[in-house]
Amino acid sequence: MFQPERFATVGFAARRRPNGFVASVMWVFGLVAGAAAVAVGAILAIFTAVTVAVIALFAGVLVFLAGLAMKARRNMTQRRRSSDADVIEAHKVGETWVAYGWERDGR
To answer: Transmembrane stretches, by residue range (predicted)?
Structure first.
């Protein structure tokens, strides 16, 4: 006579579903595990959003400071160009022009 309980069965059909009290306890534990997974996912999503916001804040401050630095550099360049140290005086002596202040530093 053939007895199927003595042999191992393979596949989804081989699973035995618990009955009675064990089934309800497993269902409750599954529900608790699912709720815990949702809670951990929500906390991680909030942590990720806060991290992105902080990175964006630091990037905005960095761009603002870079803009201030570029503005200061532009203003200093304009001041240097408008200073009297770069102006060369020239007078016409006879048929030629004579320039004063043409000497370079360090020569």
So the answer is: 21-46, 52-70
- How far apart are the C-alpha atoms of 66 and 72, rounded to whole Å? 10
φ and ψ at residue 105, rounded to 5 degrees = -70, 145
For the segment 61-93, what is each residue's pLDDT rounded down to a tens digit?
999 999 999 998 888 776 666 555 556 778 888
Distances (CA, A) of 72 to 32, 67, 82, 96: 60, 9, 15, 41
Residue 98: in which H helix or E strand, if any?
strand 96-100
What are the residue ranges spanned by the domains of the chain? Answer: 19-81
Q: Tokens 């140290």, residue?
A: 85
Q: How many residues does the chain have?
A: 107
* pTM attached to this predicted model: 0.50
